[in-house]
């Protein structure tokens, strides 16, 4: 019998490096780090250039990529899988184990090096055959370090897309910190820092009986569910977001918009931007329109948001919705106009504190005591989905929803309430509501002792 010769270089270059997803190498490395129980993973690009303007990082020449984590060191099985193409992890229920996915590094390099503990494994081609070498070193590395010297100098990935990808990935893997940096000849530029802070111990959740715990092919089985609250922090160099941003669909766009909108930013490419809670975001927004743009983006992505029922319930009680108090809508505005009269105090509220102004006549009677949602065709449906009621429907549910004043003169209160009831009649509000309102007024009037001059 004869052995078939294999051109390793052609196999690796033409097949094993061609993953059908963006940033496949980084997906693999981040998941490997999580599988190794790492706390932190760091992506480091190296350039031999002297860079003084961070905006020039987008076009600088990159000669090397390094990836490191502080997880568990490699054991013998890990080293064996690394050198055996397609052996992968025998445990099929675990994703991200070093196997075929590792060979995507050969898209960038012909000489990858892996350093874990006191061991180093390096690869290089001899002709078209891929060889590996194992060495021991006194330099101990906690976790894993992967060095990938480029075949030929290249450039950084599209930083806007790459930062968006890292944010998305960070939310989906069990890592507490991810860093991105560029080491230039003169200085190191930290580009991105992502961190999580666990706020509570996981609460165990029972699996609903209607859900099949096994995946269709039987590879995965859900044994238990847990819920843990995390605080996510994002800090990035402004220069990474210098490329134009659009509201195009997809996770990259979502990541970009989170970075662009949920932040306080000076706009200086040399400065760093950190995300904060919604109140801080709002206080540092250039104007209310900027914050409305963020809400409009969430509204446009409602189909994706509503699939996460836990997220929707959280949004319903979170004070992140923009509202206006003491809005001055002129009496001549008998029909609602987009943005009409939004000249009041703007702040953030929860859905239970807001109303949607669907009738200006009624609103003019109560504008001192209600907080209005922005009057835009995009935001009003979004607010409604989060439980913000229309003003007219709220009136139908409430017997009395009028102006309140502290220790008023009885005649002043009576005068204001008569005007409010008149507004209800003029607007053809249901007779039942009007009748209840009048009954309330009769009881009120019967308790008033009018003073005689």
Automatic annotation (TrEMBL):
Residues 15-124 form the Sacsin/Nov domain. This is Sacsin/Nov domain-containing protein. Gene3D superfamilies: Histidine kinase-like ATPase, C-terminal domain. It comes from Lucilia cuprina. InterPro entries: DUF3684 (IPR022155), HATPase_C_sf (IPR036890), SACS/Nov_dom (IPR058210).
């Amino acid at each position: 019998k004869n052995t078939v010769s294999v051109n390793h270089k052609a196999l690796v270059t033409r097949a094993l490096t061609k993953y059908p997803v963006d940033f496949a190498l980084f997906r693999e490395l981040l998941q490997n780090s999580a599988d190794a129980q790492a706390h932190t993973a760091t992506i480091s690009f190296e350039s031999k250039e002297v860079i003084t303007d961070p905006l020039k990082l987008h076009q600088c020449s990159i000669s090397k990529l390094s990836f490191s984590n502080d997880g568990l060191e490699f054991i013998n099985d890990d080293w064996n899988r690394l050198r055996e193409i397609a052996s992968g992890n025998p445990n099929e229920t675990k994703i991200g184990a070093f196997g075929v996915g590792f060979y995507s590094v050969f898209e960038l390099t012909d000489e990858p090096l892996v350093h874990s503990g006191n061991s180093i494994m390096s690869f290089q081609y001899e002709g078209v055959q891929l060889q590996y070498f194992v060495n021991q070193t006194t330099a101990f590395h906690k976790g894993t370090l992967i060095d990938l010297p480029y075949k030929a100098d290249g450039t950084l990935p599209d930083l806007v897309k790459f930062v968006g990808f890292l944010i998305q990935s960070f939310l989906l893997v069990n890592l507490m910190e991810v860093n991105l940096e560029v080491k230039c000849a003169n200085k190191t530029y930290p580009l991105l820092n992502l961190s999580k802070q666990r706020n509570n111990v996981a609460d165990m959740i029972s699996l609903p009986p209607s859900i099949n715990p096994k995946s269709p092919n039987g590879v995965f089985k859900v044994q238990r569910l847990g819920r843990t609250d995390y605080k996510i922090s994002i800090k990035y160099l402004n220069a990474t977001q210098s490329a134009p941003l659009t509201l195009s669909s997809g996770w990259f766009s979502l990541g970009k918009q989170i970075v662009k909108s949920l932040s306080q930013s000076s706009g200086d490419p040399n400065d760093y931007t950190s995300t904060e809670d919604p109140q801080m975001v709002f206080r540092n927004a250039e104007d209310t329109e900027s914050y409305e743009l963020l809400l409009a983006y969430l509204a446009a992505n409602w189909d994706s948001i509503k699939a996460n029922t836990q997220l929707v319930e959280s949004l319903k009680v979170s004070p992140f919705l923009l509202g206006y108090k003491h809005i001055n809508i002129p009496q001549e505005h008998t029909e609602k106009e987009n943005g009409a009269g939004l000249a009041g105090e703007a702040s953030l509220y929860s859905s239970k504190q807001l109303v949607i102004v669907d009738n200006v006549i009624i609103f003019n009677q109560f504008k001192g005591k209600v907080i209005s949602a922005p009057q835009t065709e995009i935001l009003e449906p979004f607010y409604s989905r989060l439980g913000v009621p229309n003003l007219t429907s709220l009136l139908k549910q409430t017997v009395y929803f009028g102006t309140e004043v502290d220790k008023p003169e009885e005649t002043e209160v009576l005068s204001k309430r008569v005007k409010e009831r008149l507004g209800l009649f003029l607007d053809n509000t249901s007779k039942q509501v009007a009748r209840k309102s009048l009954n309330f007024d009769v009881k009120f009037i019967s308790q008033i002792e009018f003073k005689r001059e």
